[in-house]
Structures are given as C-alpha cells and as structure tokens.
Design a protein that fits this description.
4 helices, single chain, mainly alpha, 86 residues
Length: 86
C-alpha cells in the first residue's frame, strides 16, 4: 500500500487535446501573439495619457469621414456636416 504522504494527487478526469493550446501558448509564437499586442496597446495608452501622442486631429478626421462618407474637402464645400441654409 502507498502511504498518504507519498500521494501528490489523484487523476479524476482526463481531457485529451487540452494540452495543445497550452503548449502553443508556451511556445515563442504563442508568447509573441499573446503578449505583444496588449503590451503595444498599453504603451499607446500611456503615450496618449502623457500627451506625447496627440490623437485629436486623427479623431476629428475620422469623425468627418464617418458622418459624411465623403473626403474631408467636401465637408468644407457643403457636405453632410455643413449647416442647413436658412
């Protein structure tokens, strides 16, 4: 009989194939894909918070294009963002 102090654990269930994603996550490509994008997002957020990276002009440009669907030049000539004539 095995003494209780020698038992490290008991296998109650086995799930075949669950080790493949874990093995991939521990590989170099897995680590690169799992850690680099969140790290880049954090870096960009920190740069934006410290005002090193000003996204104001880019946001304004994106807003104009999202609303009108036309290039920014058309907005100044009476595009969808222009006030209605009275």
């Amino acid at each position: 009989m095995t003494p209780a102090t020698s038992v490290r654990g008991i296998v109650r269930e086995a799930h075949p194939g669950w080790g493949r994603p874990l093995a991939w996550a521990h590989s170099a490509p897995g680590r690169l894909l799992l850690f680099v994008p969140p790290l880049l997002i954090l870096i960009l957020l920190e740069l934006r918070a410290s005002s090193w990276l000003d996204l104001g002009p880019l946001r304004a440009y994106a807003r104009r294009h999202r609303r009108s669907g036309q290039p920014a030049d058309d907005v100044t000539r009476g595009g969808a963002d222009a006030p209605d004539p009275v």
